[in-house]
Amino acid sequence: MIEAVLEKIDNMLKRANFETFILDSFSNKKTKFCFDLLVKKNDLVFSVKIFSNIDNLNADIINDIKSLSLLLKSKPLLIGIKNRYH
Predict the structure, then answer these.
(1) Is the pTM above the cut of 0.85?
(2) Residues 6+ apart with CB under 8 A from 39
(3) FRET partner for 19 with CA separation of 20 to 30 A, picked from 6, 42, 44, 57?
(4) How many domains does one find in the chain?
(5) Cβ-based burial of 3 (10 A; exposed 0-12, middle 13-18, buried ≥19)
(6) pLDDT digits over 40-63, tens only?
(7) Domain of 54: which CATH number?
(8) How many CB atoms lie within 10 A of CB 73?
(9) CA gyration radius for the chain?
(10) Of 5, 3, 8, which Cα lies nearest the Cα of 24?
(11) What residues pair up with 20 in beta bridges, in sequence order?
């Protein structure tokens, strides 16, 4: 499910002339990363994370995302496929 959404987002951003890098594309094994996709266009950099259920976010995950975003000088973009109501 996440892979299909990630592919759609990647294609959409590429059509808008963003450079994209999917973080698990270089590995055959299933590796967990803090972000799923890094996106750049000019001086804009986004770190994209997709959650199958956005309600799974907790303080530790949010703090990790904030820390890495500061380090990369990027803006975090969190996408939830569903929540507890859907």
Answers:
(1) no
(2) 13, 18, 19, 20, 21, 45, 46, 47, 48, 77
(3) 57
(4) 1
(5) exposed
(6) 999 999 999 999 899 988 898 889
(7) 3.40.1350.10
(8) 9
(9) 13
(10) 3
(11) 39
